[in-house]
Amino acid sequence: MTAFFAAWRQELGSARKYSVAVRNYVMAKTACISGVRATELCLVRLGDLHWNNGHWGRFLVRGKGARGSGPREREAFMFAEGRELLWWYIEEVRGLFPDDALDPYAPLFPSERLPAALGAEVAVAPPVCADTFRRSLRAASLAHLKGTVTVLFPHLLRHACATHNYESGMPLWDVQVLLGHTWPTTTVGYLASAKADPERASLESSRRAVRRLSGET
């Protein structure tokens, strides 16, 4: 995934529609970092970015509730990499779209076109649709992804986020919070490809216990 995103970013400067190409890239990488669903990303507004929340900043998403309970809001996590990525996008690219990039109700990831019926009177562009995001991700994966998986779609980025963080040592409960799952059994289903290492987990647990007993933080 690291090589895939590096290759994709390298080609952005030569894209025919630079702002659109960067938007698609930032959406995909944000999904991979934060585990946010495609439909949730499309609904994020500029005013939903809270740079001072948590350690690196967070953003508000509106997603589906458990068992058909309807939409619900939750905070998604930027982490250090996502904060740097989104800050670059806001500072350098978001203002290239034809709407008011200072309006807090404007979408973070807008469509490149304003509604034809209203034209220049529209201050806020509609958000990019999930199908557009899926098509851009598919095209990028066919061009730059190497390995056994040749085509990506947004939900695979969500799985990649869960697996990467779990294998890096994030507890299952924290992965559950990251993905916004109500039930831990749902989260476990995302980790089918994770490589567990019980010996390493046991050693790390022992080291933490020793540090606590010795008064270290």
Can you offer a commentary on this structure?
- This protein is mainly α.
- The protein has a single domain (2-213), classed as Intergrase catalytic core (hpI Integrase, Chain A), CATH 1.10.443.10.
- 47% of the residues lie in helices and 7% in strands.
- The chain is built from 9 helices and 3 strands; from the N terminus they run H-H-H-E-E-E-H-H-H-H-H-H.
- Helix 1 crosses helix 5 (130-144), helix 2 runs antiparallel to helix 4 (79-92) and helix 6 packs antiparallel against helix 7.
- The radius of gyration is 19 Å and the shape is globular.
List the helices and strands and how they pair.
Blueprint lengths: L1 H9 L7 H17 L3 H5 L6 E2 L7 E7 L6 E7 L1 H14 L37 H15 L9 H14 L4 H8 L4 H5 L9 H16 L4
Antiparallel strand pairs: 1-2, 2-3
Task: Give the SSE string.
Answer: HHHEEEHHHHHH
The helix tally amounts to 9
Radius of gyration: 19 Å
At the third CATH level, what is the topology name?
A: hpI Integrase, Chain A
Number of domains: 1
How are the strands of the largest sheet arranged? Answer: 1-2-3
Name of the CATH architecture: Orthogonal Bundle
